[in-house]
Structure formats: structure tokens, C-alpha cells
Amino acid sequence: MYRRKVMAGVVLAGALGLTACRQDMHNQPRYKPFAATSFFGDGRSARPAIEDTVARGQLHLDQARYTGKENGKDISYFPIQITRADVARGQERFNIFCSPCHGRLGDGHGMIVSRGLRQPPSYYDPRLVNAPVGHFFDVMTNGYGAMYSYASRVPVDDRWRIASYIRALQASAAGASAGASQNGAASPQNGAVSQNGAGQSGRAGGLQ
Ligand code: HEC
After folding, report:
1. What are the tens digits of pLDDT across the range 25-65?
2. 58-87 residue pLDDT tens
3. 111: Cβ below 6 Å to ligand 1?
4. What burial class does residue 206 get, using C-beta atoms within 10 Å of its C-beta: 0-12 exposed, 13-18 middle, 19+ buried?
5. pLDDT value at position 15?
6. Which CATH code fits 65-207?
């Protein structure tokens, strides 16, 4: 009887040993962000970039693409190629990051606005219809007035894709209101999305 108990104890301890202590490389020595160290002379564990070097993917020579400006002025062309798939991705990103305030149509009637946050201007405001596309990139990159920057959340090329989708919204509204005077459609902006199918096809594209 006693021996059996001992055996059971050994088996149990063995089973625990098998499950519990698989640390392998899970816990490695590391520094928490910005923690101090005595290893380097300057006491910093985060190392500054070595002089005259650039980390891979961070050269950013193309000023227009990374700032939306040329010689300090907003550019009025897209510095990356925009295909239909890019517009679809722009729509998907827009719906995620911008529509809560700007509304899915960009008319400034987002859900958060209906809860009391300051209302942004409509993208169909002639000032924004005529604004160079670099302006939209700039607003996303640096923020604008009460709107904060989206640079940390939306990568550079996605900002151009969102801008392309805003252009698509504006163009379809313009087309729809031209159509509205002919066929008497009630709402240019609703017409914009349903008439040319930008909303539908883009959404499907976003899921692929
Ligand atoms: C939290 C709410 C909020 C979100 C999310 C938001 N915006 Fe805004 N946006 C605003 C407000 C508020 C203004 C008006 C700012 C002002 O005039 O002070 C604004 C203004 C703008 C303008 C107009 C700037 C001008 O010249 O008047 C553009 C363009 C714009 N936003 C684009 C975007 C894009 C693109 C996104 C998504 C990446 C986005 N916003 C996400 C609140 C938001």
C-alpha cells in the first residue's frame, strides 16, 4: 500500500515536471524599453543609430511620397501607383480609421460626432474638393486643428490609398449631382455610392 502511494507520488511529480518547466528560450535576458544599463558607456540600453547609416527601409529619399510636399507645397499627384485594388484598400482603411468621425461618405456625420465630438468639414466642401491630394496626406500625417495625427497608425502608402478613396468619394458625388439634375435623384451623396458601385466593389475587394 505504502509503496503504491510512493509510486503514485513519483508519477505525479514526473508529470508535473514534464508540463511545468518548459522555459527553453521563452525567457531570455532583455531590457525593457529605455531601461538603463551599465553595459554601454552612455548608460542607455536603446542604442542610437550608427552615424552615417540608415536602417533598411528608412531612407525615405522620395520626398513627395513621404511628406506629400515638394518644395514645401502640397503635391497634386499621387506619388505611388494607384490601382483599383489600392482604392479598395483605401476604402477599407478609411472605414476603419476615418469614418468614425468623418462618416462613411466623408460628409462629416460620423458616429462619434453624433455623440458630441466636434464635427469635421465635409469632403464635398469645395475647398476640400479643390485641395491638392498632398493636403489629405499632410492632414493624416501631421494632424489638423482638432484632428490628431494618424502617422503612427496608418502607414505611408495606406495614407495615399485613403486619399485616393476620398478622391473617389468626391468624384462620385460630383458625378451623381450632375446626374441628379438630369434624373432628379434625391441625394447626390447616396447616389454616389450606389450609382457607380464604388462602395460595393470596394468592400468586396477589401475582404479578399
Ligand atoms: C476622432 C475624430 C476624427 C478621426 C478619426 C479623423 N478625423 Fe479628420 N478631422 C476631424 C476633425 C474634428 C476635423 C476638423 C479639424 C479642425 O478644423 O480643427 C478633421 C479634419 C479633417 C480634414 C480637413 C482638413 C481641412 O483642410 O479642413 C481632412 C482632409 C481629414 N480630417 C481627413 C481625415 C482622414 C483621412 C482620417 C482617417 C485617416 C481622419 N480624418 C480621421 C476628426 C477626425
Report:
1. 788 888 999 999 999 999 999 998 899 999 888 899 999 99
2. 899 999 999 999 999 999 999 999 999 999
3. no
4. middle
5. 64
6. 1.10.760
Question: Per mean pLDDT, which range of 9-18, 76-85, 130-139 is the poorest?
Answer: 9-18
> Which residues, 6+ apart, have CB-to-CB distance to 180 below 8 Å?
186, 187, 188, 191
Residue 71, Cβ density class (10 Å: 0-12 exposed, 13-18 middle, ≥19 buried): exposed
User: Nearest-CA neighbor of 79 among 144, 129, 132, 142?
Assistant: 132
Rounded-to-integer distance, Cα 194 and Cα 147, Å: 29
Which atom number of ligand 1 is nearest to the Cα of residue 163? 35
Ligand 1 contact, 126 CB (< 6 A) = no
CA of 142 to the centre of ligand 1 (A): 11
CA of 191 to the centre of ligand 1 (A): 23
